[in-house]
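Archive transcription. Copying these from loose printouts into the bound notebook so they stop getting lost. Printout 1 of 2:
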Amino acid sequence: MGALRRALVREGSLWREVDVVQRTGSTNSDLVARAGAGAARAGAGLGEGVVLVAEEQTDARGRLDRKWVAPARSGLFFSVSLRPGDAGVPMERWGWLPLLTGVAVATGLARAGGVDTALKWPNDVLVTVGGEERKAGGILAEAAGDGGVVVGVGVNVSLRADELPVPTAGSLALAGAVSTDRDPLLRAVLRGLDDWYGRWCAAGGDAGACGLQEAYAAGCATLGRVVRAELPGDRALVGEAVAVDGDGRLVLATEAGVQEPVGAGDIVHLR
């Protein structure tokens, strides 16, 4: 772990603390709890730039409290603490954080693992296994303490077909990755996240101005497809995904001839 810390915690880096634990329930829950305890005790939250990595998670969560199950040492399981408000980014732009993280994950895995990935709006990382699109990773952003955000990432790296939690899941190994060494994969993802987060903050959270909006659209497998958006309140909306707008929302062109932005919900690729 010392080598990992030395590689990431350096002058000018976003990362100021990197910890690796063998086993925990959820790295996201751990950092959110630390942020809350810190705020209550000292009037300040967790602080920015903390990275918590786990070799195994026993109670990992995805969006909508879905469970994330994977064998020990089979993937990347980590969370980071961010404070975009301290950099002057308005809260209404914080919805870009899962998308920004997705771009960093996709580019890092491509560089260090030699595997093609795509992004499914808003927070899934896809790979191709046997000609089929499979989910290999997910991203979860949660409010933490006073003005903080914890972003968690889970990526299936070395899982075999018989280890997948569901048949429709995938892994980097099954997608033909050149390397499944988790150390360089993690370093590449965290360096990419440092870079994109810095650009985004410097632009005041303007995803268009810093190039994030364009980069996300270029890697998004959802755009150009007919999808069904399963919305809160048991509503559903079907249309072609035509854009990701300046607020990070998915814009659907419906059969009624209107364009409707979707800010939250499950997206099902129909074709």
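Printout 2 of 2:
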Amino acid sequence: MNRLLYYILYIWMYLHALLPFRVLYILSDMLYFFVYKIAGYRLKVVRLNLEASFPEKTKQERLAIEQEFYHHFCDYFVETLKMLHISDEEMQARMQFENVEQIKELMKDGNSVLMYLGHYCNWEWVTSINLVFRQEGKILGEIYKTLKNKAMDDLFLKIRSRFGSLAIAKQDTFRVIVKLRNEGKQILIGFMADQTPAWRNIHYWTPFLNQETPVFTGVERIAKQTGFAVVYLDMEKIKRGHYKATVRLITDDPREEPENNITETYIRAMEKTILRNPAYWLWTHKRWKRTREEVEAMQQQK
């Protein structure tokens, strides 16, 4: 049944991917009306998040962010479908990478790089960075959370590996990275580190978007154990269907960084990106569903 569902979904998505962008954006506008105006998909969560993050803004200002977010969210969906049928040339014209020389310089002496990014703009398109490195023998990968539905998991893996990137299941992250390092492979691994860690794995809290927030420290721990350099990918939406991502160095010597400094630097950079244009972040997630007191009480009972 999973295979049958996979093929049904794949055919449906591929047929949509054949459509030109101008048609896909008409479908996106129609989807916006249904998702936002009729279904109100996670609207309560979005409004609570925006109100807590921007208490200084008026209700009308937050409403404008909310509406722009849902427009972008629907664009993200159709743009992701398009990955099933888009040429390398068109992808490179629409997804531009700036300062990639920084990564090349860091990898010049055989080192590898860990790359922070967030659920901002169209994060799925970031896998096209592989087109920049395809002739250099580097392994580019991303960490992903396995979906419960096998058909959907297989489908998204196909989309995310469209440009040849290696998809690494979250639970296998450290094992795979160490294996590749031991094999002498140079790797660039992307981490989506702007979501809530499982409560058992919360070790660090910091102010983020006006709220005390638990954050992932796993990327920093991996960097300190391996010595891999760390960068941040700062994304911008230039116009509909066009993005720019700029590589910014966090550290080329993680073992010398004070504890939590790498994590803190990323969080401050991610916050700056979001504040530049809040509508392009993924506001539908329950980012602040537990307080520090609740988490610490749960950890003490463990």
